[in-house]
Write a structure and sequence with these properties.
By secondary structure, the chain is of the alpha+beta class. Strand 2 and strand 3 form a beta hairpin. Helix 8 packs parallel to helix 10. Helix content is 40%, strand content 18%. The protein folds into two domains: 64 residues, Arc Repressor Mutant, subunit A; 184 residues, Beta Polymerase, domain 2 (2-Layer Sandwich), CATH 3.30.460. The chain has a four-stranded mixed beta sheet with strand order 4-5-7-6. The protein contains ten helices and twelve strands. The longest helix has 14 residues.
């Protein structure tokens, strides 16, 4: 008869020896050549003792001593494995990517993951808050791979990050996005910004970003880059902020309706 506890301990030990922080039900079923019902009680006990945390049904992360206080390991240690397990293209983006590039204003517990269709249910519990944002498509050249203790994760380039911040503003405002962009501006490459903007299929992000660099951040060189991109296409007037009135000052150069004031923290 299988000693399930010792056997699961062995699996966890082997996973950690390989630098992995996760375990799946499929792996355990194959390892023990048995059904989920045969191992679910053991899994429950490991969860209760805080040794495993369920992220998705069938996917668990291994709690290690240095993160025992938080009861969960950082998302960047398991997100790539989880997305591969779910066979989903992804990248770490928006405020989460900005934090990786040095945005200090963005110390939040939420994680933002960009995915393709079909959508995924967000993960919200006392340990985690992971938001999955659907994007129709993206160019892989705008995605970077950065190394973590668990391998590599996909993350948007600084240039893609600031474009995304200007488009996806549902959970934050133009003011917060502007201050984050101001912080990570030193990481932006002019040529890469021009190329990324030409590939970006949401014109409103280019308009907002161009206005921001030109009129609020005094980054004229970046503004010139985006002005060149805009000359290649037709643009309709767009709101600077989606959270404010539809009335405001018309900024013809950027086809922007300035419907709010932006406060940049120095």
């Amino acid at each position: 008869m299988i000693n399930m506890k010792k056997s699961i301990d062995k699996v966890i030990f082997e996973k950690r020896a390989r630098g992995e922080y996760f375990i799946t039900i499929d792996e355990l079923k194959e390892y023990f050549n048995t059904s989920y019902n045969s191992i679910k009680q053991s899994i429950f006990r490991y969860k209760k003792k805080g040794k495993l945390s369920q992220i998705r049904k069938g996917f668990y992360v291994i709690t290690i001593p240095e993160y025992a206080k938080n009861k969960i390991i950082p998302v960047y240690l398991f997100i790539d494995d989880m997305m591969k397990w779910q066979k989903k293209d992804y990248y770490l983006g928006l405020l989460s990517a900005a934090s990786m590039f040095g945005a200090t204003q963005n110390q939040l517990m939420e994680t933002y993951i960009i995915i393709k269709r079909p959508p995924m249910r967000n993960i919200k519990n006392e340990k985690l808050s992971i938001n999955f944002i659907v994007k129709k498509d993206w160019n892989e050249k705008d995605i970077k791979k950065i190394k973590t203790d668990a391998g590599y994760i996909n993350i948007s380039s600084p240039e893609m990050t600031i474009l995304d911040l200007m488009y996806y503003m549902k959970n934050w405002g133009i003011n917060r996005a502007a201050n984050i962009i101001n912080e990570i501006a030193p990481k932006i490459d002019k040529k890469k910004l021009e190329i990324a903007a030409k590939r970006y299929n949401k014109k409103i992000a280019i308009q907002r970003l161009g206005y921001l660099f030109d009129r609020e951040l005094n980054e004229r060189e970046f503004a010139n880059v985006l002005s060149r991109v805009m000359k290649d296409n037709k643009y309709n007037y767009a709101l600077l902020s989606p959270h404010h009135s539809k009335k405001g000052k018309m900024i013809s150069e950027w086809k922007i309706i300035k419907n709010t004031e932006i406060e940049i923290e120095i």
